[in-house]
Design a protein that fits this description.
Radius of gyration: 32 Å
Structural class: mainly alpha
Order of helices and strands: HHHHHHHHHHHHHHHHH
Strand content: under 5%
Number of helices: 17
Largest sheet: none
Shape: elongated
Helix content: over 70%
Length: 360
């Protein structure tokens, strides 16, 4: 009975919430119809704007755009309408249009922080990191204490292959790093890009509270560069274990190649390293820089270097042979298909002759 009572209360509470939502949307729609009916009278730009933003919050961008344009038509100085029209264009992938709207705002109000941030994001989508850098630099000039803006600017600098500058910006907000996993990981990555051993500590801190195959892989590489092979192997094995399927940024064969290289660097006599390299190559690992580097790796004796070179050459030859066989098979298949068509034609001609003979 007690359980039934709890269920009844829960159902009543759910029904009450649903009723409130229905009443809200009904009220909203009635308001929209009223505004639409009297649109020829004195409806203000602010009222149109409110309706547009209600649609925006519901994700109905087409309706939101229509009402915000009405608001802008009523009041050309209503920058909030321009800004949110830009947001709609951005959300719907019309980045060039979004940029025009944000720039229009900035022409009238060059210190509008929201428009500066929005234009920076838009420039990233348009593939212009230099322009994004320019806008975010202005944001930091206007609000230098904003750690979130600092992180975003550091991210842009890192994407522009400026790790030293990115690190400098992040360290201005060092009070946020230990408590913010995104800031901590970005700091580790910009330090890794500069071959700084401090990256090891920051990757370690991140992994104490988080878990990710990509980060374990990066951590393994940093440890390998630092000569900490036992820890590098542990991190790379963890990456392979957690990477149950390839991702857009990391393939299993890439991790296996790194694992094989680290095993051999730790102990050049360990055949498990050769096994991992073999499996990586069979699976499709073809990164030329990595292959060239391992056959010249000074940590390996010449006998191992030669063995790896033969392994790579044999894999390349096999791939070329397989490709050649496939091409020949496809050609033969094409010939057979053409031959069958010719036979069909001859067969058809014979049938026609027989038919003519019968008619005669």
């Amino acid at each position: 009975v007690q359980l039934s009572g709890h269920k009844l209360c829960a159902e009543l509470e759910y029904n009450k919430n649903m009723l409130m939502r229905v009443l809200f949307y009904l009220t909203f729609l009635i308001g929209v119809f009223v505004f639409a009916a009297c649109s020829s009278t004195g409806t203000s730009a602010e009222e149109y704007y409110s309706i547009g933003m209600a649609y925006f919050e519901m994700g109905k961008y087409e309706d939101a755009e229509r009402w915000l344009n009405r608001a802008l038509g009523k009041n050309k100085t209503l920058r909030a309408s321009e800004y949110n029209l830009g947001r709609i264009a951005y959300e719907t992938g019309r980045y060039t249009e979004a940029s025009k709207l944000f720039k229009k705002i900035l022409k009238k109000d060059p210190v509008n922080v929201m428009a500066l941030k929005a234009e920076a994001y838009t420039q990233i989508k348009l593939g212009s990191l230099e322009e994004a850098d320019k806008y975010y630099k202005k944001v930091l000039e206007l609000e230098p204490e904003n750690a979130d803006s600092g992180y975003n600017y550091a991210l842009i600098l890192f994407a522009m292959d400026k790790p030293a500058e990115s690190e400098e910006v992040l360290l201005k907000y060092d009070f946020t790093i230990d408590d913010n996993k995104d800031n901590l990981l970005l700091l580790a990555r910009v330090q890794k890009a500069q071959n700084k051993l401090e990256a090891i500590d920051n990757y370690d801190k991140w992994l104490q509270k988080n878990d990710d195959a990509q980060v374990y892989y990066e951590y393994g590489l940093v440890l390998e560069d630092g000569g900490f092979f036992a820890k590098a192997l542990s991190a790379t094995r963890s990456s392979l274990e957690k990477l149950t399927a390839d991702t857009a940024t990391l393939k299993r064969y890439t991790v296996r190649f790194a694992l094989g290289r680290q095993i051999l660097a730790a102990d050049s006599t360990d055949d498990e390293g050769i096994t991992e390299l073999t499996e990586a190559l069979k699976a499709g690992f073809t990164d030329k820089d990595s292959l060239d580097a391992i056959v010249k790796d000074v940590r390996l004796p010449k006998t191992r270097q030669d063995e790896i070179r033969r392994l790579i050459d044999d894999t390349v030859k096999k791939d070329e042979s397989d490709t050649s066989e496939k091409t020949d098979t496809d050609k033969d298949s094409g010939k057979d298909s053409g031959s069958n068509k010719d036979n069909d034609k001859e067969s058809g001609s014979g049938s026609e002759s027989e038919s003519e003979s019968g008619t005669k």
